[in-house]
Amino acid sequence: PFGSSPGTVLTFLDHLRYYHPKAMAKQFFRLTLYIWLSSRTADSCDSEVTSFLAVPPDRRETSPPGPAPDLASELAALKAAPQAAPAPAAPGLAGDLAALLAKKKEKESQGRKEAEVATAEPLHTVKLVKQYVPIEKNGSVIAYKTAYFGKIQVGSPEPQDFTVVFDTGSAHLVVPNSACQRETCLKHNRYNESKSETSIPIEHDGTILPRGSVSQHSVSITFGTGKVTGTFVRDKACLKGDDDQGPGGCATVNMVVANDMSDQPFSLFHFDGILGLGLEALSLGPGFSFFGEMALPVQRFSVFLARTDQGQSSISFGGHDESKAASGFSWVPVAKPELGYWQVQVHQVRIGDTILDECVDGGCRAILDTGTSLLGAPRQAIKTLHSLLSRNVLVAPNGIGHGEGFVTQEAADQALSADCRNQEGDKLTFDLGPDVPGIVLDAEDYFRPKPFNMTVPEIDGAWKLTCRSLLLPLDLQAPLGPKTFILGEPVLRKYYTIYDWASKRVGFAQADHSQDGEAQGAIGSPEEGSLVAGAPLSKKGASGPGKSAFFNSEI
User: Crossing angle of helices 69-84/91-120, nearest 10°?
Assistant: First the structure.
């Protein structure tokens, strides 16, 4: 039976595909864990990454709005009606109007309370650094993998420094162990248990072991492009803010210390480990969730990603920074929180005015994930999405030349050097419910930067330059199912998101990028104007609505 034989290895395979919470109650189990790192998404889609940013429809409000004038007039008229005319008043209408006003007043009050929560308690904010890793093929860079990470400290009285990816798609704190002598581990800061007076060796279930001993069990966590094997330790871990502020936001947490780390992806990136922020159901058990163990007056954390590499991205614990929101927050309940993911129900998906058949029954869901850099979509819907989202930049029925049906070499070169993210395209909308503004993606958010040179099957010798969407095909099995989307880094750049641990809900607001601040820049950032997949957005932003001068979609 489980736990009786020395050297037992607990295997954690592909959590998104096979995980079932009840397995935790069994003595011998196979718990699955899939950590959605950006490196996984890049390799899963021809080694390419991209950006998909959402624009909410509402605008920023600097003060609570007053009563709607039309409702106030209607109520005044109803009150005067019995004296002005013998006809009886319509009590039903008066009740409906009163109910609307009450509901409006309640929303305004809730908005003020949210603002008060944002500023009532001090935030523990960690600055995030972005890193680009080039992916080469035949000597040329074809894509960039990306990741965001920040600083934490583990142990005491002399804390040990680490950089970690703050990942909402997993739920464990994982750092390299000093016992790991693999070259990949040697590239990173490693945790030394013997140097921490607060370290306690534990078993996989949190059982305390005698000091100096090591668990007879190990955990093997399979990543999308790699693997980590380690044992278990309980120690004090703290967020690390600005250098002059020192550590803050601490918790005593059960963590995984890696004794072996595969080359991919850990040898490529600068970060040392992972700090999972998924719900507790995604973890091994009580005590393994860092955020769950934090003693915060407000059990929320928020994520802000700067639009460009010159801006400062950050994650805040204990609430949110109201100055980073360009609109009010819309709250959506977590769907199936027992699975442990920050996922929401998607009632409908639209491309322009066309409704996606796969979600017409309201049965789709989307996972908010800080560890992926692509928009993931069900494989069964990928072909339809690609077809509806694609746009022709230039069409050459007769090829290069002069005259009718030809395009000049100059026009072709200009079109080929255009950034598709500046082109016009249909809006891709995720409808999150009747009372919630949808997530709306523009061409900037879903197009690959560089147009594709494609043949035109209907006309011999004809070709065209086409902007195509960059989507990650997903084949997720139960309990998540095949109708699940992944909303990653790009959406989080346009939305300032709050994760409410206590109420199991997610808040969305348009990110205010005028508050990006200044950062030292990203690690390995591509040159300005690069059209390689995963390249950053232009500092100047998109060219705005309307077709470019060389946009030609007729054929």
Answer: 150
Q: Which two tokens stand for residue 136?
A: 């080469």
- Tokens coding 290: 């860092």
Instruction: Extract the tokens encoding 444.
Output: 């900037």
Contact 541, 151 (CB under 8 A): no
Closest CA to 164 of 315, 287, 41: 315
Are the C-beta atoms of 297 and 318 separated by less than 8 Å?
yes
Give CA angle at 226 (221, 229), nearest 5°. 35
Q: Could you tell me which of 107, 504, 110 has the C-alpha nearest to residue 333?
A: 504
What's the first-to-final CA gap in the chain, in angstroms? 68
Q: What is the DSSP letter of 526?
A: P
DSSP character string of 284-298: SSTT--HHHH---SS
Distance, CA of 81 to CA of 402 (rounded, Å): 76
Nearest residue to 19 via CA among 363, 472, 484 = 484
DSSP 430-496: EE--TTSPPEEE-HHHHB-SSPEEEE-TTSTT-EEEEE-B-EEEE---TTT-TTEEEE-HHHHHHEE
287 within 8 A of 235, measured Cβ to Cβ: no
Q: Are strands 273-276 and 247-261 parallel, antiparallel or unpaired?
A: unpaired
Per-residue pLDDT of the chain (555 residues; tens, 9 = 90+): 222 223 333 443 333 333 333 333 333 323 333 333 333 333 345 454 322 111 222 223 333 333 333 433 433 443 444 443 444 444 555 555 555 555 555 555 555 455 444 444 689 999 999 999 999 999 999 999 899 999 999 999 999 999 999 999 889 999 999 999 999 999 999 999 999 999 999 999 999 999 888 888 888 877 656 688 899 999 999 999 875 566 779 999 999 999 998 888 889 999 999 999 999 998 888 899 999 999 999 999 999 999 999 999 999 999 999 999 999 999 999 999 999 999 999 999 999 999 999 999 999 999 999 988 889 999 999 999 999 999 999 998 888 888 888 999 999 999 999 999 999 999 999 999 988 889 999 999 999 999 999 888 778 878 999 999 989 899 888 889 999 999 988 899 989 999 999 999 999 999 999 878 888 889 999 988 899 998 998 765 533 333 333 333 334
Which candidate, 268, 37, 258, places its Cα nearest to that of 154?
Answer: 258
Entry pTM: 0.79
Assign 25 to helix, strand or coil: helix
